[in-house]
Amino acid sequence: MSFIVGIDKGTTATKAVVFDAGTGKVAGSANRSTHALHPQSGWHEEDMEVTFSRVAECIRAAISNAGLTGDDISGVGVSGHMGGLWALDAEGQPAGHAIAWPDARAGEIVAGWTRDGRMDEIYEISGNAPIPGVPLALLAWMKANEPDRFASLSQIAFAKDYINYRLTGRFVTDESDISFFPCDIRERAYSSRLLEIAGIPEVADKLTDVLPTGSLVGEVTKEAAELTGLKPGTPVVTGAGDAVSAALGAGAVLPGQAVTVIGTSFMNNLTTDRPVMEPAGVGFLFLMPDGAWQKLMANTGGGSLCLDWALRAFDNDRLTAAGEERADYFAAIEAEASAVQPLANGVFSHPYFNTSGMSAPRFIPEARASIFGFDTSTGPAQMVRSVMEGVALSMVDCYGALDGTVDEIRLTGGGARSPLWRKICAAAMNRPLGLLEAEETGALGVAVLAAVATGQHPDLAQGTKAMVRLSDTVEPDPGLAAIYADAYPLFRDLGRDLESLWRKRADILSQQGQRQEKP
């Protein structure tokens, strides 16, 4: 029996999972928190040495927890959060702290690109409207604000690439991660024109080689073996950026296959055979293996984040009393919400609780959550159900705006553990939703890549067929589907009517802030 280690280097935690290379079954796992640094307001950094040490601990613990040794591991794949800036200096050492994707220091640069029209050309080339935490914006900021550090950069890549570098001694990247540089999405390569638009043409000489996703990077070095418990010479593949690896781990590898993730954010990802540019300026477009693309329509305003807010706001006493062991509490609140009539007695919630606002199906960063139809009968159970329904109706919004055919949808993420929530999502979409057996789809996705690259499956399609399995399928309830079909137009129209009011609210707050800043 052969085993693969899949590593998901996340923004808040790193998870290492040992999978059976033939079946994808989990043999053992471990996780470690990510140590984030915030030297200034809005900044989000990592000490790269600390990050790798925690990844190494995670790998060693996962192998041990599986009851295995490094001799049993036949390959390694690493997934990492996309964007950010992970750079080496001329000596191959970290060029300062890594900057992670939530970092906001380049916000004004991105706003400037929007004001002067450069964003339109960036989107036309890349299929992505950059956020402040992408390398293109961070490098432009660094050139303007930290020129000495900018000049010291020798090689630039991404989070997973630094982990692979420490494992193998080779610093390269793959197609999936350059999507969020961003790159020329049609040519599947870095774009000199984008560097010119950002005013950083000299960066072209600092970019690492780009390999096809899932290619072999190298082998585990003796030094890395001592730190991780892996055997020297163990093959390491490129892995993939987290959005792509999660789709692979869900089995969404063929055009028309989609995966919805009810995580902190709410992501709806469709695999396509062409770069889907519509709706313009909305969502993200990433490169998938085997010449495919992925259109990601993410409600960054919130998925499970919205439910967390509702529980804190309306049921905090019971939530606090439950402590860390909350299984019984969640079962109780789910039963109460299930007993509430559909549409929660007429309460409609728009799920934009996060300060990032709405990112799909329209890009409105000023958007915020709204609760419509609230009255004295509204209690914790009604709010829980309303939030679940609001997220599900935003799923209808996102898939409906896509310029592409959706043949099947698979559902995963922490929120998918809720029988009620997945029932609501299936009814809102009025189509079956496949439930995934594995929860750690990011780690599984890169494990599949490693299993294919080491010859344990002939290709990606066969690898996912063998290693990615559905635990169940949620069929839509016809009566519930009819209720949500009638309710969706009101949800949609309320959101459109609120657009101008969201922006007016932002203007008022901005003016208030300016007044307070004056002496």
Structure annotation, total helices = 18
Number of E-state strands? 23
State the major sheet: 7 strands, mixed
Shape descriptor:
globular
Helix-strand category: alpha+beta
In percent terms, what proportion of residues is strand?
15-25%
End-to-end Cα distance: 71 Å
Radius of gyration: 23 Å
Q: Give the neighbour order of strands across the main sheet.
A: 17-18-16-15-21-22-23
Walk me through the structure.
The protein has 519 residues and is an alpha+beta fold. 41% of the residues lie in helices and 19% in strands. The chain is built from 18 helices and 23 strands. The strands form 7 sheets. Strands 17-18-16-15-21-22-23 form a 7-stranded mixed sheet, sandwiched between helices. The protein has a 5-stranded mixed sheet with strand order 3-2-1-6-14, sandwiched between helices. Strand 17 (284-287) and strand 18 form a beta hairpin. It is globular, with a radius of gyration of 23 Å. The N and C termini lie far apart (71 Å).
Outline of the structure:
The protein is α+β, with helices and mostly antiparallel strands. The N and C termini lie far apart (71 Å).
SSE inventory with pairings:
Elements: E1 3-9, E2 13-20, E3 26-33, E4 36-37, E5 45-46, H1 48-65, E6 73-80, E7 86-88, E8 98-99, H2 107-115, H3 118-126, H4 135-145, H5 147-152, E9 155-157, H6 159-168, E10 173-174, H7 175-178, H8 192-197, E11 210-211, E12 216-219, H9 222-228, E13 235-237, E14 240-241, H10 242-249, E15 257-262, E16 266-272, E17 284-287, E18 293-299, H11 304-314, H12 316-322, H13 327-339, E19 348-350, E20 370-372, H14 380-401, E21 408-412, H15 419-429, E22 433-436, H16 441-453, H17 460-467, E23 470-474, H18 478-517
Parallel strand pairs: 1-6, 6-14, 10-11, 15-21, 21-22
Antiparallel strand pairs: 1-2, 2-3, 4-5, 5-8, 7-9, 12-13, 15-16, 16-18, 17-18, 19-20, 22-23
Helix pairs in contact: 10-16, 11-14, 13-14, 14-15, 14-18, 15-18, 16-17
